Amino acid sequence: MEQKQKEDDKKWVYDSSVDHKGRPPLRASTGVWKASLFIIVYMIAAQLYQKWEVVIVMKMTKLVTNLAIEFSERLSYFGIATSLILYLSKVMHEDLKSAAKSVNYWSGVTTMMPLLGGFLADAYLGRFSTVLISSIVYLLGLILLTMSRVVPSLRPCGQGACLEPRKVHEVVFFLAIYLISIGTGGHKPALESFGADQFDDDHSEERKKKMSYFNWWNFGLCSGLLLGVTVIVYVQDHVSWGAADIILCVVMAITIVVFCVGSPFYRYRKPMGSPLTPLLQVLVAAIAKRKLPYPSNPSQLYEVPAAEKTLGRLLCHTDKLKFLDKAAIIEDNEDSVQKQRSSWRLATVTNVEEMKLILNMIPIWLGCLPFGICVAQASTFFIKQGATMNRKIDDDFLIPAASIFSLAALGMIASVTIYEKILVPVLRRATGTERGIKILQRIGIGMVFSMLAMIVAALVEKKRLGVVEKNPKTGSMSMSVFWLAPQFVIIGIGDGFSLVGLQEYFYDQVPDSMRSLGIAFYLSVIGAANFLSSLTITVVDNITEKHGKSWFGKDLNTSRLDKFYWLLAIMNMLNLWVYVILARRYSYKNVQRRAAVAVADCFKEDGVTLTSMA
Hints:
Elements: H1 2-11, H2 36-44, H3 53-57, H4 64-90, H5 96-112, H6 114-125, H7 127-150, H8 167-196, H9 204-238, H10 241-261, H11 276-288, H12 337-341, H13 349-367, H14 369-378, H15 381-387, H16 406-431, H17 439-470, H18 485-509, H19 515-546, H20 561-585, E1 602-605, E2 608-611
Antiparallel strand pairs: 1-2
Helix pairs in contact: 2-4, 4-5, 4-8, 4-9, 4-10, 5-8, 5-19, 6-7, 6-8, 6-19, 7-8, 7-10, 8-19, 9-10, 9-16, 9-18, 11-13, 14-19, 14-20, 16-18, 17-18, 17-20, 18-19
C-alpha cells in the first residue's frame, strides 16, 4: 500500500491543483519549469539567456510562458516608469517636486492595486483568468498611451514646441498610465503566484526548485528591465515616444498569445472563496470563547483529520498569540451538532495558525517600508541626476538619462546569479538546510546595501554640487554620468537580496489560499513606500523652507539632495536595528507534511517543518 502511494506521488500531483481539463496533473508533463525559459530563449531574449541555455532549457518546459509575459510586462512597465519623470518635466513642464510626486503617486497606485487584483484572483476568478483579463486591460492602456502620442489631435502640442501641453493630452495620457496601473493590479500578483504554483511543496525536488524560482523569475524580470531602459528608452529619445509605445504594444500582444498557448502545461488552482472569511471566523470564535481555559495539551485543539483535508495543507500549532488558540477549543457543553459545525464558533488549528501568520507579517511589512523609500529614489532623483551630467560616450552617442537605470538591473542580475549559483550551494552545505539562509536574513542583507547606496549617493551628489558651484555656466555637464554607477549598482545588488526575498517571503508565509494576495503584500511594500517617499519630500520641503532654504529647489542645482540622501541613510540604519529584532523573534510557517496524524506531532529540523509519520 505504501509502495503504491509512493508510485502515485511520482506520477501524479496531489497538492489540490488540476490540469487544464480539471484532472489531477501528471507530474512529468505539467508544472515545474516546463514552458517559460524555452519561450524566452527562442522567441524574445535568446541572447540574454545564451549562457544559461544548455543548463536551463534541458530542465524547463512550462513555467516559461509565465516568464515571457512577465518579461513583456516588465519591458513595458520600466520603459514607461524610468522615463516618466523626464516626460513629465520635459513635455508636461512640471517642476522637480511635482514631477517626482507624480511619479511616486503613479508608482504607488500601480503597486497598491495588486491588493485588489490578488484578492479577486484568490477568491473568485482564479489566477490564470486574472492574468489573462488584466493583460488585456494592460494592452488597452498601452494602445491608449500610443494614441496620445501618435494621433495628431491627442498629441501634447500641435506644430513645434509649446509651453504647456493640451488638456486633452493630459487627460488621455494620465488615463492611459492609470489604466496600465489597473492592468498591473491583476497581472502582477496573479502571474508570479501562478508561476510558483507550478511546484509541489510536498515533493522534495520540486520544493528545492521553487526556492530557485524567485531568483530566476527576477533574472528574467531584470532582462526585460534592461531592454526597457536601454532599447525602449533609446527609441523614445532618438526616434519618438510613439514609436516606442508601438513596440511595447506589439510585444505585449504577442506574449498574451504565447501565454494562452502554454495553457495545456499549467497546473491550476481553483478559487476557494474569500480568504478573509476564515480569518474573521477565528477572531469571532476566539472572542466568544475568551473566558475558557487553555487545554493542557495542544493536541486537544480541534483540527480536521489529514485524510479529510481536500484543499490546502494543514499547519502545525505554534505557541505565539495563544489568545487565538481559544477559537479551536472544543467546548464540553456543546450539545448541538449544528453548533459544533459552525465555523464562527469552532475554528481549526490550521485556520488559527493562518490568522497568526497574517498578524506576524504586519511588523515585518512595516519594517520594510524605509527600504522601499530608498528603492523609490532610483527611479526618480537618481534618473534626474543622470540627466544633468555628461552622458556622452563619444561625439556621436548620447546615453539616454533613463538608461542609467540599467546599471541597477545589472547589479541585481549579478547578485541573483551569484546568490543562486554560489552562495546557496555553499550555505546549504554549511547549514544543512534546504534554503541556506532564512528568508528574513536575506532581506536584511539587502537593507544593508540600500543604506550603503544612500551614503554613496549623498557623497556623489555633494561632489556634483561642488562642480556646479565652481562652474555655474556649464553646471555638472563636465562630470561623467558614470559617477552614478556605484549607487545604481549597489542598490541593484540590494534589490537582488531584499526584493527577491520579499517576494519569496510573502508568497511562502501567507496561507495557501492567499498566495496572490501574498505577492500583492510584497508589492504594497513598494507602493506604500512610494507614497511615503512623496510624503517625506513634502515634510522635509516644508521644514527646511521654514528654517532657511528648502532642500528641494526648482531644479537639482538649487536643491540639496545630498542631505536628503543622508537623512534616508540614517532612517534605514535605525530601522535596520528594529528589523533585526523582529526577524530574530519571527516564527515561520509550520506546515504538516503528508501522513501527519495529530497537532502535537509537528516539529522543526534545520528550519524545515516536518511531522512524525503514522
